[in-house]
Amino acid sequence: MTYARSALFPAVLAAIMTVTRGVGIHDPGFEMLIVRLIQAAYSLLVVYFVYRLLERALGRESAMLGGLLAAVFFAMPVTAVHQLEESVCQVPLLAACWWWQRSEDGHQPSAVWAALAGAALGTALILRFPLIGFVAAFGIMVLLRPLPVQRKLTFLGGLALVIVLQGYSNAVINHEWWYSFIHRLGPMFHPQRMAIEADGYPSSPPWHYVLTLLAAFIPPASILLLAAAVKGGIRVPFLGIATLAFLVSHSLIANKQERFLLPILPLVFILIVAGLPWLAARIAPRAAYRGMWWYFWIANAVLLAIVTFSFSKKDRVEPLLIVYRRHDATGVVVAEYNQTFGVPEYYLGQPRPPVVVVERGQNVADSRGGVPINYVIVYSDTPDSDRVFLAAALHRNLTLLTVVQPSLTDRLAHAINPRHNRAHTAAIYTTS
Fold first, then answer.
1. Which of 102, 247, 258, 295 has the lowest CB atom count within 10 Å?
2. How far apart, in Å, are the Cα atoms of 47 and each of 62, 327, 359?
């Protein structure tokens, strides 16, 4: 009832899970694997649309490079298979750009392509409401173009149709028309608060996202690539202005997280490729330009291998899967003694055993509430002493089953930023 985002993405995931359970797949690890394989197939559309947009504007050779960046840039595959609305919205956002270009190419009937572009843009918006800056800039540029009124109206009609359907879904689910727009976009009417308060999330200065892009595109090559993107924005102004509007609107908000940049990452690839002729002409000798790309692709390949074959937050997921696959859990204590987080109980499967979460200083016996505990998962910097304490509190012996070590990705994140990214272990005990 209080879910303020669109129900579209969760509904699709729920449908996939319903089908998998209907054919007898109940292991949450395998179920999530199927979900992610479907998302991986869906994400290939990003490569297709990047290729198409560049092929139309700059030719096949540029399209090949842009498609390659969209396919194997190290951040793309791993984020594409996570349940991130920031990645899911990339496809309709790019589709809107491509279908609008189709309408301008004079394809018949151009009004149909314009309507599809509007509907795709609306779909991207309801999947990720903070895209409003990009959507607003896109819509304004469409309306300002010297085009037939019919094409503009059909574009607005496609956009309006999706927005009305979202409002109707709010009426059904939240019992209030426009609930999502009010709660997700309503804070925009208080810009001073949004610029100062991050509501507990990371807060950074306005230039944070520029630094993030410089880091993501592998310095020092990233300096040259982002310079090419600026030049590409001038060469392809329609995409350049909309992307700039997105970056400016996000940079003015206090809450800054790296994943928020994912929606426009494929568009940045397009702008980089569009600006490469300018960059190549200004780097002499030619060997230096080729050297930049060799360095970029070698470093990118290393990062791609690391993040593709290792998942983050392993200490939170793996212990629950281990408990589920023993098929005898009656109750699980999760002792969060060196970190606090929402336990992803989904990975305990169905029927789900009761989960008791305790933090340091809490009375374990009172928190337990009579639940028959037979597994204890401990997150602690002093696991031996905490095992003794928990055994006494539960009046049971605790036998170590296994210790889940941090993944390679977790270790790498810790090495890069140890203050914010800690690599934790999880000790799993059985009771007797």
1. 295
2. 13, 41, 45
Distances (CA, A) of 48 to 44, 94, 116, 298, 341: 7, 9, 17, 24, 37
Q: Which DSSP letter does residue 424 get?
A: -
pLDDT of residue 26: 93
Closest CA to 278 of 229, 315, 223: 229
Structural domains in the chain plus CATH codes: 8-308 (no CATH), 314-431 (3.40.190)
How confident is the model over 56-93, as pLDDT tens digits? 999 999 999 999 999 999 999 999 999 999 999 999 99
| Overall average pLDDT of the 171-193 stretch | 90
Pairwise CA distance, residues 77 & 69, whole Å: 11
CB 46 within 8 Å of CB 91: yes
Task: Give the C-alpha separation, 85 to 287, whole Å.
Answer: 41
pTM for this structure? 0.92
pLDDT, tens only, 212-257: 999 999 999 999 999 999 999 999 999 999 999 999 999 999 889 8
C-alpha to C-alpha distances, 140 to 25, 137, 143, 263, 339, nearest whole angstrom:
48, 5, 5, 20, 46
* Backbone φ and ψ of 381, nearest 5°: -85, -10
Buried b (16+ CB within 10 A) or exposed e, 419-430: eeeebbbbbbbb
Which residues, in sequence order, are CB contacts of 192 under 8 Å at separation 6+?
none
Three-class SS state of 202: coil
Question: Is beta strand 375-379 parallel, antiparallel or unpaired with respect to 332-336?
Answer: parallel
Helix (H) / strand (E) element for 409: namely: helix 408-416
The encoded tokens of residue 206 equal: 């306005």
